[in-house]
Amino acid sequence: MRTGPTPExxxxxxxxxxxxxxxxxxxxxxxWGLGLAVLVLSVSVAVSVGAVAIPLGTVWGVVLDRVAPGVxxxxxxxxxxxxxxxxxxxxxxxAALVGAGLALVGAVLQSVTRNPLADPHLLGxxxxxxxxxxxxxxxxxxxxxxxxxxxxxxxxxxxxxxxxLAVASFAQATSADRLVLTGVAxxxxxxxxxxxxxxxxxxRAAHTVVFWMLGGLGLAQWGHLIWPAAILLGxxxxxxxxxxxxxxxxxxxxxxxxxxxxxxxxxxTCFVVAALVTGVMVAFxxxxxxxxxxxxxxxxxxxxxxxxxxxxxxxxxxxxxLIWADIAARTLMRPEDxxxxxxxxxxxxxxxxxxxxxxxxG
Amino acid sequence: MSCPPPTPARLELExxxxxxxxxxxxxxxxxxxxxxxxxxxxxxxxxxxLRLIYRFHTPQSGRVLVDxxxxxxxxxxxxxxxxxxxxxxxxxxFALTVAxxxxxxxxxxxxxxxxxxxxxxxxxxxxxxRLSLRAFADRPFGTLxxxxxxxxxxxxxxxxxxxxxxxxxxxxxLDIRHQLEVLRLVRALGATVVxxxxxxNLVHGFADDLLVLSGGRALAxxxxxxxxxxxxxxxAFGVVATPRxxxxxxxxxxxxxxTERPA
Lengths: 362, 263
Fold this sequence. Notes:
- The complex is a heterodimer.
- Chain A is mainly alpha-helical.
- Chain A has one domain (about 90-360): ABC transporter involved in vitamin B12 uptake, BtuC (Orthogonal Bundle), CATH 1.10.3470.
- Helices cover about 75% and strands about 0% of the residues of chain A.
- Chain A has helices at about 5-20, 20-50, 55-65, 80-110, 125-140, 150-170, 175-200, 205-215, 220-240, 245-250, 255-260, 265-285, 290-305, 305-330, 340-360.
- In chain A, helix 2 crosses helix 4 and helix 14 (about 305-330) crosses helix 15 (about 340-360).
- The radius of gyration of chain A is 22 Å and the shape is globular.
- By secondary structure, chain B is α/β, with parallel strands linked by helices.
- Chain B is about 25% helix and about 20% strand.
- Chain B has 8 helices and 10 strands.
- Chain B has helices spanning about 45-55, 75-80, 100-105, 120-130, 145-160, 175-185, 225, 230-235; strands spanning about 10-20, 25-30, 35-40, 60-65, 70, 85, 165-170, 190-195, 210-215, 215-225.
- In chain B, helix 4 runs antiparallel to helix 5.
- The model of chain B is unreliable at about 255-263 (pLDDT under 50).
- At the A-B interface, helix 1, helix 10 and helix 11 of A face helix 2, strand 6 and helix 4 of B.
């Protein structure tokens, strides 16, 4: 027996749809607006806070003056303007880019591995990137100019990603939990190799590298922001385009295949793009863990599971989180700059325990 | 907007085999709109056969023809518009809602960059209605019971507008009432159906035709009444089948005349 929709079933259907979504849509619009406002405010506070406190009004004044000179008359010293524009603003923006990138990659990896514990750090991608970056910083020199470090970081991230996938298939660790264990194992090995590179390198440079590896945004400059910004923009657009396929991947490989998705190739492509983003982020900020694990979970509690919303919301939340983590890193042990990886590690580790507890009960 | 039901597909298997001995060559023809039950003990090759039909495995030899086209020579997306599968995989960790999961069925019909069209919305709404899921549309999948989850997965397949629906043990982990309910819903979808079943008692009233597998070989194919004999059951499952014993029940839904449950 097959029937088309009868008028009786079709009418209440249309009516039900008409009154439910608009409310939710405006609520969602409000949430986006609120999120963006929080992001702008967070950047402003990040620029304002520091050894020299600068009022928010001055911060916005300096930015406006640089973007559109002559609109207002400066009532601040050139030194303060420099602190705002040359030091603190690029740093806050780099924090935002790195946070957004890591959270995006985390959300994508969780979907394609169908594993809520996936994260660029846990899957060994970050360690590979660190290995590549250390190789460039301590051993090969910048033989390709400024792109050497991000490029080698990407190659390192890609190699360790492929290594994780190869080891996983070799060890037949196809289940989601075992893939993460494989990532952790590969991560240990790659980190050991990276530490060997540091050990063999110039001891004075090594000190800087160790510090960088713990995660730090202190070296941010305007000229460097273009790389993470461009890569992140491209990756975000592409992932947003395939958000539907990412949703399908969360059901299962076989079901995704019956929906017309070339599962193996799609997953590999996602891993390569994830490695690209992670590589460039690690090159500029060091190894910052747990952002990619934590943020998508929190975001899903608010916006639900559809990746069309999860991906942009994760980027927003990741950016805000890392800006505040950096503020904490700069202020908790003033005047020392604490490595930001320590802050995210503490918060993230506690979150991980909460997540395990929650999964146990759920 | 009218929603013409998809035309049921004709399925032909021609000497289909896989993985040296896991599935020996099987041939059969299933006329449009018929329901084929695939029976067999664990490891008999049921899932392998199904994977070949929903294009997850590539045949070692032989062909799977849907409406005369060899599906293994067609692009995946084209096949996805004709063949849908309801498998045991279920997404519970990612907070997708029922409506979002059903909407995934529209993916093969959508062009890149295009959002859901009005027709997509209509078909999704229809699939939800058909499986009495309207009230659940905005519920996260993970909060549903086993029977409700299975209905969601069937609705997702229905949204693909397939001519052929393949179901891998659709009654697994369901209590008796939900087993009967799911089977009745599937039967009423109007598509050609291939479903593996492990419970012999569910075959009557659900399947028109039966394929019995044992050790990767087809023991029998044909209409249920001809195929399902005590002798065949003994050969397929290694048990002695007595047509009727004491303290056995026949199960059916209380209101078999009523076609749909009120939502």
